[in-house]
Write a structure and sequence with these properties.
Structural class: alpha/beta
Order of helices and strands: EHEHHHEHEHEEEHHEH
Number of strands: 8
Radius of gyration: 17 Å
Number of helices: 9
Bound molecules: adenosine-5'-diphosphate, zinc ion
Amino acid sequence: MKLILLGPPGAGKGTQAKLIVDKYSIPQLSTGDMLREAVANGTEVGKKAKAVMDAGNLVSDDIVNAIVSERLDHDDCKNGFILDGFPRTLEQADALSGMLAEKNLKLDTVVELKVDDEALVERVSGRYTCGNCGEGYHDTFKKPAKDGVCDRCGQSQFKRRPDDNAEVMRTRLMAYYKETSPLLGFYYAKGDLKSVDGMGEITGIFNAIDNILESV
Ligand code: ADP
Ligand code: ADP
Ligand code: ZN
């Protein structure tokens, strides 16, 4: 299974990707996670990306394309992968088409998560993740079963992203509508786009996505 999860910041891409990983045993390739790791490790890429990410703008296509191309060569991508947060520009979509052709891979589907802007801001403002295993949570919508303890790994250290605030979110949403939303037309025209209502419960949304995955 090779798919792209498309949608604005806070739409639930990461949340749904983790459920797909559990069921299909394919890796989640999140360019946001990879870039944050590069920032945390102080690599050359991290140094270039940090200020851009903090401001809510997009990191350059060259950097992101190179990261993804390298990642797709890892053994764990042999049976498929979930692209989460990539591609985000038409240039990246073109680069991805080239990479896949070169590596003899073919996308199965592109799943769009549709979520209202107000809900996006609310979701992003309350988002936090486990500092150990990366499981995602929300102050209101997805609390751990036991207060302060990660459901998945039992650890109790959590973190919040510096760009998950209402002000930077405005810039990120702008970047989405300007640079990323044209990809909907791009994949629709190719016949690859499937849209899912992302406004309901997490499990209901997963079922809708899973129906699509089962049918491709
Ligand atoms: P993205 O990866 O698209 O930026 P996330 O999956 O990180 O989005 O979700 C953003 C926040 O919203 C997280 O705190 C997550 O727990 C929460 N969330 C995800 N899906 C839903 C949903 N269907 N309803 C309410 N909150 C959700
Ligand atoms: P979200 O899904 O909440 O928007 P991500 O974790 O996907 O957040 O991305 C966080 C930030 O990392 C983005 O605002 C952007 O600066 C950078 N980034 C992630 N993926 C890409 C990409 N494909 N192209 C350019 N910048 C990216
Ligand atoms: Zn955890």
